[in-house]
């Protein structure tokens, strides 16, 4: 069964450092998303991406965040200057159709720890 | 903003029993989805129910949707220890398909 692949599975970084989280969505999916889950809290939407541009973003997705699809397969989330409160599990997801009418496929997540 | 809220927050049952989890939301939806998350792992899509559907089955899962009450329920029949996980409902929010998740129900199935 097709999977969304995320790397790395764990990342520890110093506060103020830049991190890039990587995702390989399912190849025939057109819509891509990043979500995050702070430990013990809800899964929160960050950003959606379609046709090589951001479709929608939440209040969390401020100027410190950016997304890119540098080639035909990878989808990355960059945090420019990490803060302690950025520590969370970050999930990438993709869907074939808008509004996820066929459901979303999530990756296994990257656990980011900012120290 | 619309919000999926599950109850109970935690549920502990014996293997073989049925588990029922509920979800309420606030605004109109196109669809509602249920996801499962094993501790510290990714989200696994279980089932999607469209706003014009009232009930849907998938294996041991049964989902109902009542749009007049803005609520949904997930029933897992004949539970197994392997069903131990957190279960989240998620409603579609915004025009570009982002999901709004609830806080989840933590299900523990004791062998």
Descriptors:
heterodimer; A: 115 residues; mainly beta; 7-stranded mixed beta sheet; B: 111 residues; 6-stranded mixed beta sheet; 5-stranded antiparallel beta sheet
Question: Strands, helices and their partners?
Answer:
The complex is a heterodimer of chains A (115) and B (111).
Chain A: E1 5-7, E2 10-13, E3 19-24, E4 31-37, E5 43-50, E6 53-57, E7 65-68, E8 75-79, E9 88-95, E10 105-106, E11 110-114
Parallel strand pairs in A: 2-11
Antiparallel strand pairs in A: 1-3, 3-8, 4-5, 4-9, 5-6, 7-8, 9-10, 9-11
Chain B: E1 5-7, E2 10-14, E3 19-24, E4 31-37, E5 43-50, E6 55-58, E7 61-66, E8 71-76, E9 85-93, E10 98-101, E11 105-110
Parallel strand pairs in B: 2-11
Antiparallel strand pairs in B: 1-3, 3-8, 4-5, 4-9, 6-7, 7-8, 9-10, 9-11
Oligomer: heterodimer
Stretches of chain B where pLDDT falls below 50 for ≥5 residues? none
The proportion of strand residues of chain A reads: over 45%
Work out the helicity level of chain B: under 10%
Q: How much helix, percentage-wise, in residues of chain A?
A: under 10%
* Number of continuous helical runs of chain B: 0
Write the H/E string of chain B, N to C.
Answer: EEEEEEEEEEE
Radius of gyration of chain B: 13 Å
**Mean pLDDT across all residues of chain A, rounded?**
92
- What form of chain B results from the Cα inertia axes? globular
Number of strands of chain A: 11
Low-confidence stretches of chain A: none
Describe the sheet with the most strands of chain B.
6 strands, mixed
Please state the average pLDDT score of chain B.
89
């Amino acid at each position: 069964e097709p999977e969304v692949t995320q790397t790395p599975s764990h990342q520890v970084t110093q506060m103020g450092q830049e991190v890039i989280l990587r995702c390989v969505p399912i190849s025939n999916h057109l819509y891509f998303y990043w979500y995050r889950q702070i430990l013990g809290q809800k899964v929160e939407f960050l950003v959606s991406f379609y046709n090589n541009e951001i479709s929608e973003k939440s209040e969390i997705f401020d100027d410190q965040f950016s997304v890119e699809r540098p080639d035909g397969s990878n989808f990355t989330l960059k945090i420019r200057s990490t803060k302690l409160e950025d520590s969370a599990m970050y999930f990438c997801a993709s869907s074939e159709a808008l509004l996820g009418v066929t459901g979303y496929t999530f990756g296994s997540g990257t656990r980011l720890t900012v120290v | 903003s619309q919000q999926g809220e599950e109850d109970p927050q935690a549920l502990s049952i014996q293997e073989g029993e049925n588990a029922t989890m509920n979800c309420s939301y606030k605004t109109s939806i196109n669809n509602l989805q249920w996801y499962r998350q094993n501790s510290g792992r990714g989200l696994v899509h279980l089932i999607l129910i469209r706003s014009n559907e009232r009930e849907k089955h998938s294996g041991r899962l049964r989902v109902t949707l009542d749009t007049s009450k803005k609520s949904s329920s997930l029933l897992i029949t004949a539970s197994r220890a392997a069903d131990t996980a957190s279960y989240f409902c998620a409603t579609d929010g915004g025009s570009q398909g982002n999901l709004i998740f609830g806080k989840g129900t933590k299900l523990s199935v004791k062998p």
